[in-house]
Amino acid sequence: MNAIDTLQLISKQWCDIQDLMKLTNLGRNSVLKIRKEIINDLTNQGYKLPCNLIPMCEVVNKLKINVPYLKEMANMELK
User: Which domain holds residue 48?
Assistant: First the structure.
């Protein structure tokens, strides 16, 4: 995935398993572990989540995605 594709993907409000697999380039079992960690963190904070969805902002934080860098790279790709 290039920077533009990544930015389009993380601009969504909710993240499902397929999105997480695309972002991490990992298999289903590894992604399920990451998803479970995020869900546990959020439920311990008192949040209730829709079935099989997690907030994309939490995914970006967990994966430490550098959004400003992606924006710079996307601008370079467009030129």
Answer: 3-78
